[in-house]
């Protein structure tokens, strides 16, 4: 029996993938969304939204996008480790162009003509950049220039930059003063307080079909706050694990005992609210030569590279939806196809109940610890994994070497 049946739930309440239906509207989130909505009715709308990892920025963006009227045309760029030319290509691709053989001056001309055409047709155009903290200063300068495209009456491109707190620091650079002067509104989303966290958990449970607010007792909620610091993504992870533990032990509610078992399984220490990180992860990162990027994922289509991503410790989602960290625009790829988790030991890929599955060679895999150089097939795309820690590669030829019941790693039928 899954924990959904055990706890009378219709769907998983604490999924990590962004879902606007589960968005809990704190005052902070409501204000951030209002700022984003202002870009539609302000002709010179330019908004910057920042928040810690897991604070709900991407879910907020999805909610905003789901409510846009038909007269709004938008592009979402979430892969942001790009050169200025690549960034322009990414924007044009989102607007339906195929700009990869064009020079920069041609790209700018294409975009300018597109914006003027949309304006003439009574359309409002919005550019949304997620994970904007990764944009280089050269690309941010390109964004400033784009924000200045205008007719004889008004500007024709609205812009929303969303990113982690590092984006605020970058924008404080003297070289970006002209960009900051263009920004109409700025807002930072902080973690939930203890009361908001309780309401957040109950809200997600109710959306998932649970009646009543007695699934987590008061002491369990206090411990959850202590270990998550009110960060929504961490709350989701800990609550989901605690529910699994309670279901396994045939408990009808989650108590401190189940939360502490979940904490032990996750190997977490108490959260340091001022940094938004766990002490253990900070210590580990401090020991690394490159304190952030540990995993490299190369995306290939028909043998040619179409994207190259690098990631630190943590979880990223692969899929067709633009909110994914690894965005693959293919009808053979599910909206949220798989997740890639980088941990202290390396990297694990897990199928998220996709339609077409995940394959390593001829073998369909459900959950698998990757080896340096492994090539995984998702739909009609290949993902090539590289361990940037440059460890000695493990035995790459045997899937069975890493598949065992004790690790919960299995090959699908």
Quick tags:
five-stranded parallel sheet, 21% strand, six-stranded antiparallel sheet, alpha/beta, 13 helices, 34% helix, 413 residues
Walk me through the structure.
A six-stranded antiparallel β-sheet has the order 9-8-18-17-14-15, with no helix packed on it. The chain is globular, with a radius of gyration of 22 Å. With 413 residues, the protein is an alpha/beta fold. The chain is built from 13 helices and 18 strands.
Task: Furnish the topology, listing elements before pairings.
Blueprint: H1 3-6, H2 27-41, E1 46-51, H3 57-66, E2 72-77, H4 84-94, H5 104-120, E3 124-129, H6 137-147, E4 157-163, H7 166-171, H8 177-182, E5 185-189, H9 194-207, H10 218-228, H11 232-248, H12 256-266, E6 271-272, E7 277-278, H13 279-287, E8 295-301, E9 304-311, E10 314-319, E11 326-327, E12 338-342, E13 347-351, E14 358-360, E15 363-365, E16 367-369, E17 375-378, E18 381-387
Parallel strand pairs: 1-4, 1-5, 2-3, 3-4, 10-11
Antiparallel strand pairs: 6-7, 8-9, 8-18, 10-12, 12-13, 13-16, 14-15, 14-17, 17-18
Helix pairs in contact: 4-5, 4-6, 10-11, 10-12, 11-12
């Amino acid at each position: 029996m899954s924990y959904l049946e055990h706890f009378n739930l219709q769907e998983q309440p604490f999924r990590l993938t962004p879902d606007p239906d589960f968005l809990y509207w704190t005052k902070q989130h409501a204000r951030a969304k209002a700022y984003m909505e202002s870009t539609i009715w302000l002709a010179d709308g330019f908004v910057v939204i920042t928040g810690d990892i897991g604070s709900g920025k991407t879910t907020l963006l999805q909610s905003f996008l789901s409510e846009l009227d038909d007269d709004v045309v938008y592009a979402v760029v979430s892969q942001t480790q790009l050169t200025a030319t690549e960034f322009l290509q990414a924007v044009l691709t989102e607007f339906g162009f195929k700009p990869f053989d064009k020079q920069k001056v041609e790209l700018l001309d294409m975009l300018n003509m597109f914006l003027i055409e949309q304006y003439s047709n009574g359309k409002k155009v919005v550019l949304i950049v997620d994970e904007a903290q990764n944009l280089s200063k050269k690309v941010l300068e390109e964004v400033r220039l784009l924000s200045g495209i205008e007719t004889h009456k008004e500007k024709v491109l609205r812009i929303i930059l969303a990113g982690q707190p590092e984006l605020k620091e970058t924008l404080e650079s003297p070289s970006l003063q002209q960009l900051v002067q263009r920004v109409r509104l700025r807002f930072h989303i902080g973690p939930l307080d203890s009361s908001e966290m309780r309401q957040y958990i109950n809200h997600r449970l109710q959306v998932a079909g649970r009646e009543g607010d007695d699934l987590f007792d008061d002491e369990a909620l206090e411990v959850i706050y202590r270990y998550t610091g009110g960060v929504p993504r961490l709350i989701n992870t800990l609550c989901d694990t605690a529910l699994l533990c309670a279901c396994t032990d045939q408990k009808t509610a989650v108590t401190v005992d189940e939360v502490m078992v979940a904490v032990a399984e996750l190997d977490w220490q108490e959260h340091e609210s001022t940094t938004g990180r766990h002490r253990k992860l900070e210590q580990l990162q401090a020991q690394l030569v490159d304190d952030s990027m540990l995993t490299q994922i190369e995306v290939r289509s028909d043998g040619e590279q179409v994207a190259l991503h690098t990631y630190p410790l943590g979880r990223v989602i692969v899929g067709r939806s633009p909110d994914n960290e690894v965005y693959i625009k293919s009808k053979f790829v599910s909206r949220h196809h798989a997740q890639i988790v980088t941990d202290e030991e390396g990297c694990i890929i897990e199928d998220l109940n996709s339609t077409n599955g995940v394959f390593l060679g001829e073998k369909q895999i459900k959950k698998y610890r990757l080896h340096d150089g492994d090539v995984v097939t998702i739909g009609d795309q290949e993902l090539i994994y590289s361990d940037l820690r440059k460890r000695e590669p493990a035995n790459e030829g045997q899937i069975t070497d890493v598949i065992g019941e004790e690790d919960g790693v299995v090959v699908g039928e």
